[in-house]
């Protein structure tokens, strides 16, 4: 798909050095690099990774104990969910909503803060590529270094500018399509986000507590943003068995509150002049 890295690989056959997603008979998932002479061990037995070379993705393979596994082609989500978690991550149930509400697509220019583990950064890069750009800020240089490594591996590094900085102090970019805030004090970055956004651009704020939401919404109102809304997405899976289908006992409940808004102008406020 892109110039280099794992996401370039569109082949349907497994080669040495490729990564496969093992889906075990018991439903567990493992992201593993294929190497000759190597074995992958789990509680359901082990497989010889070299046996996968030259076989199509989706191949079924048995472990030494007889457990039947599928060697699937990993998606971008499979990759990012296996990043080492140096900070709290944005979960899949929230990622889709954020992408949709921010309007991010191929060619978009997006400011993100902060980078953290790099899950959202990578997903944004995947969607803006190959014509767009993500400008990801973080106050911790260690986070930026880790994200750079992941992006490089996936062939997405060129679509992200990693920046050591604090969005509550300054956003250098102008006329961006979206600003996405995943920082402890998003309300302090709202004014800077407004300056950075193009007319009608989207702001998305991700917060774990309702106190943060209240402060952020008040700041958005003060700055004249329109269509301000906050949601919490709950995900409940079903246990499907003929004659006894029901919801699972456990569910993915609260992970974050997501606040969205569009740039507008307060009454009497003049838009900034467009720079050509």
Topology at a glance:
Elements: E1 19-23, E2 29-33, E3 39-42, E4 45-48, E5 59-62, E6 68-72, H1 76-80, H2 92-102, E7 109-113, H3 119-128, E8 133-138, H4 141-153, E9 160-164, E10 176-181, H5 190-196, E11 197-207, H6 210-222, E12 226-232, E13 238-239, E14 246-247, E15 257-262
Parallel strand pairs: 7-8, 7-10, 8-9, 10-11
Antiparallel strand pairs: 1-2, 1-6, 3-4, 5-6, 11-15, 12-15, 13-14
Report what the structure shows.
- With 276 residues, the chain is α/β, with parallel strands linked by helices.
- Helix content is 21%, strand content 28%.
- The strands form 4 sheets. Strands 9-8-7-10-11-15-12 form a 7-stranded mixed β-sheet, with helices on both faces.
- A hairpin with a 5-residue loop joins strand 5 and strand 6.
Features:
15 strands, 21% helix, 2 domains, four-stranded antiparallel beta sheet, Vcp-like ATPase, Chain A, domain 2, seven-stranded mixed beta sheet, single chain, 276 residues, alpha/beta
């Amino acid at each position: 798909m892109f110039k280099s890295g794992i996401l370039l690989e569109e082949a349907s056959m497994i080669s040495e050095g490729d990564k496969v997603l093992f889906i075990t008979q018991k439903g567990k998932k493992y992201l593993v690099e294929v190497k000759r002479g190597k074995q992958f061990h789990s509680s359901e037995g082990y497989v010889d990774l070299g046996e996968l070379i030259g076989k199509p993705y989706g191949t079924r393979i048995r472990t030494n104990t007889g457990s039947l596994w599928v060697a699937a082609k990993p998606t971008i989500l499979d990759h990012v969910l296996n990043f080492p978690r140096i900070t709290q991550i944005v979960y899949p149930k929230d990622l889709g909503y954020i992408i949709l509400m921010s309007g991010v697509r191929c060619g978009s220019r997006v400011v993100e803060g902060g980078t953290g583990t790099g899950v959202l950064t990578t997903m944004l890069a995947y969607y803006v590529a190959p014509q767009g750009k993500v400008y990801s800020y973080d106050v911790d240089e260690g986070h930026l270094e880790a994200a750079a490594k992941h992006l490089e591996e996936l062939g997405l590094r060129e679509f992200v500018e990693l920046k050591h900085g604090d969005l509550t102090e300054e956003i250098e970019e102008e006329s961006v399509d979206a600003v996405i805030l995943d920082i402890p004090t998003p309300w302090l970055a709202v004014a800077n986000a407004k300056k950075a956004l193009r007319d009608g651009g989207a702001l998305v704020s991700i917060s774990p507590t309702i106190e943060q939401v209240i402060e952020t919404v008040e700041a958005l109102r003060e700055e004249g943003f329109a269509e301000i809304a906050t949601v919490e997405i709950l995900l409940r899976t079903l246990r499907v068995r003929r004659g006894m289908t029901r919801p699972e006992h456990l569910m993915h409940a609260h992970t974050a509150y997501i606040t969205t808004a569009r740039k507008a102008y307060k009454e009497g406020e003049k838009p900034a002049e467009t720079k050509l």
